[in-house]
Amino acid sequence: MSTAQRQLPEGRTAWKKTAVVAVPALLAVGALAAVMAQGALAASFAVSGTSFQVASGELSSKGLASYVETDRSVDGKGHPVALLGIGSATLSDICQAAEVKTPLGDVVFKLTAGGDAGKVTASNLIIDAEDLTGDARFGTAQIGRDASTLDEVPGVKGPVGKFGLQAGDITVAGVRSHAWSATGGNFRLKGLRVDVNMDGKKCF
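-> C-alpha cells emitted (204 positions)
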C-alpha cells in the first residue's frame, strides 16, 4: 500500500478505484431527475432487478392513495408492490440506498438530502414499495375503496375492482421502506449528496 493510500482520510472514497462505477451512477441520477421532472408514475418504466432502501425521519402529505400494482423488470419478471401516491410531500430528510454489483465488487449507491440543509419537497410523489414501516397519523381514511375511484391524489387510480385505500392529511415518523421505484414532480432535494462506496453503509 502506498503512502498516499495509507493517508486517505477515513470515510473518503478512492475515486480512481471506483470511477468505473461512479460515472454510470451519476448518469443514472441525471436520468432519474429527468423522469421526476416529468412527474411520471413509477410503474411506467421497467425497473432494475434490485430493490432499494428509502428512509426519512418524518414524511407529511396533504393526501395519500394506494393500491396493489406489479412492477416489471427488463427480463419480464414481476414484482408485486403497493403503489403509494403522496400528493404534496414534505420530508425532514431522505435517504435512498442500493447495493449494486460491479466488476470491482459490491458497492453501495447512496443518495441523501435534507436534514440540516432544509426539508425535501415533492409533488405527486410515487413510491412502488414492497414494505413500509413507521408511526403514522391519518386524516379521514377510506380503506377498501375501489382503486378506480381514488381521487385524493391527482392521477393516482388503479384498475376497476382492485382493492385501494386513501386518506387525507398524513404524517409518518421513522419511515423505513424497501422499494422498486420512486418518482415525483418538482422534486426539491436540498443538500443533495450522492456517494458510491465499496465500504458504504445503507440507510438502515
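The two ends are 32 Å apart (CA to CA).
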